[in-house]
Automatic annotation (TrEMBL):
Entry-linked InterPro entries: FAD-dep_OxRdtase (IPR006076), FAD/NAD-bd_sf (IPR036188), Gly_oxidase_ThiO (IPR012727)
Coiled-coil residues: none
Name this protein carries in UniProt: Glycine oxidase ThiO
EC number: 1.4.3.19
Organism annotation: Hyphococcus lacteus
Transmembrane segments: none
PANTHER family associated with the record: GLYCINE OXIDASE (PTHR13847:SF289), SARCOSINE DEHYDROGENASE-RELATED (PTHR13847)
The keyword Oxidoreductase appears for this protein: yes
One term of GO molecular function: glycine oxidase activity
Domain FAD dependent oxidoreductase: 7-346
Pathway membership: Cofactor biosynthesis; thiamine diphosphate biosynthesis
Length: 371
């Protein structure tokens, strides 16, 4: 078997690996993307596609939470250009929508939680406001009469991740190879890469973008957080914005497909779908949008989010000099433009905007890798 040589090998063809390959192919480098295909289905295919930094201000370490919010907000600001150029290049629609997001409450506790979230996001410069239940229903008449108030994030957006993946794939001239990579060994200025079928490759630069269960990164660093979701048929226009609630969210997509998500189970690496989890999502969705109750189910699925101990991504290099674009947890679709910009800047030595430089400092692997 002959060994194939590339300048850059990207291991993982989810949204992060594909978008990075697209950015890097503007250089003269020869690029290969390795993807395990059906053996390890990408989380990107399972995502709802919410581009919602306002709703992802994590609890816990305040410094990390702020860095994560700022990175998400920066990435959201890049999404409109990213979507337009990708659609122009490929002629494919990715169903990018900028109708905003509503976080709804049907109890005073929930209302208080949204108020706190509004204050925190506003203190970081985010565009969010509290509105009454009637104001929320004026925006979205299908909302239940029990909704007593909401947090409105008018600039949060969404996209269809499956269309995004298809468009990114179409945009690539990089070589796409279906193979599960089992080892990467450094040898001077070269990396020897081995696939599970025994095939061998060499590359001068290696990027790990293998998501939650690549087998190439320690489980303490990136671990799976399983999520289940479903889609129902609900005519377009009944709900325009993404509607979020503590126990379920609804994302309207093209063609009358409404995505309802999602469960969260840390550490589970199977893709089994629990009927009771889907029933729970449907029940909660119906409490928010009663018309969804009897809508026909179109599909149900699951995926493995790539989690990290502090909920923030890993952008940088490991001890062997391999680049890491990992751990985007609940926000890989949102992060795609900014993560791509950050990794391309690192790999090609491009100038970094202040936002990207700050993210690369905050999300360095050094904070998680203790050995
Ligand atoms: C139910 C659900 C809802 C979500 N909703 C949203 C949302 O609304 N908004 C948002 O921003 N994010 C959301 N996410 C999170 C988002 O899907 C992830 O953060 C993102 O898809 C991660 O992308 P990735 O490219 O890093 O990994 P993945 O998409 O998982 O891709 C990794 C790829 O690497 C390949 N691979 C792995 N190991 C190897 C190997 N050893 N050799 C070769 N190839 C390998 C796999 O085959 C896979 O294709 C959601 C996730 C889930 C599960």
């Amino acid at each position: 078997m002959t060994t194939k040589n590339f300048d850059i090998a990207i291991i993982g063809g989810g949204v992060i690996g594909l978008a990075l390959a697209r950015a890097l192919q503007k250089s003269d480098a020869s690029i290969a993307i390795f993807d395990a295909g059906r053996e390890i289905p990408p989380a990107s295919f399972a995502a709802a596609g919410m581009l919602s930094p306002s709703f992802e201000l994590a609890d816990g370490n305040a410094e990390v939470a702020e860095a994560l919010y700022r990175f998400g907000a920066y990435s959201l600001s890049r999404w409109s250009d990213f979507a337009a150029t990708l659609e122009d290049e490929t002629g494919a629609s990715i169903d990018y929508r900028t109708d905003g997001t509503l976080g709804v409450a049907n109890s005073t506790d929930e209302l208080e939680a949204w108020r706190e979230q509004t204050d925190r996001v506003a203190s970081l410069g985010g565009d969010v406001a509290m509105i009454t239940g009637d104001e929320a229903r004026a925006l979205e008449p299908a909302l239940a009469s029990t909704i007593i108030g909401a947090m409105l994030a008018p600039k949060d957006a969404q996209v269809d991740p499956r269309r995004l993946m298809a468009a990114l794939t179409k945009s690539l001239c990089a070589k796409q190879i279906t193979a599960r990579i089992t080892t990467v060994k450094k040898d001077g200025h070269c990396y020897h890469i081995k696939a599970s079928d025994g095939e061998a490759f060499n590359a001068r630069t290696v990027v790990y973008a293998g998501g939650a269960v690549s087998g190439l990164v320690a489980k303490e660093i990136v671990f799976p957080v399983k999520g289940e979701a479903t889609a129902i048929g609900l005519s377009e226009g009944i709900v325009r914005r993404v509607i979020r609630h503590r126990d379920a969210y609804l994302c309207p997509k093209a063609g009358g497909r409404m995505v309802i998500g999602a469960s969260e189970m840390r550490g589970r690496d199977d893709l089994e779908i629990d009927a009771s989890a889907i029933a729970h999502l449907r029940t909660n969705a119906a409490l928010i949008v009663p018309e969804s109750e009897n809508a026909k189910e179109l599909e149900r699925w699951s995926g493995l989010r790539p989690g990290t101990a502090d909920g923030a991504p890993i952008l940088g290099r490991n001890a062997d000099g391999c680049f890491l674009a990992l751990g985007h947890y609940r926000n890989g679709i949102l992060h795609t433009p900014a993560a791509t910009e950050a990794m391309a800047a690192l790999i090609l030595g491009n100038t970094q905007t202040p936002e990207i430089a700050a993210a690369l400092r905050a999300f360095s692997p050094d904070r998680l890798v203790t050995t």
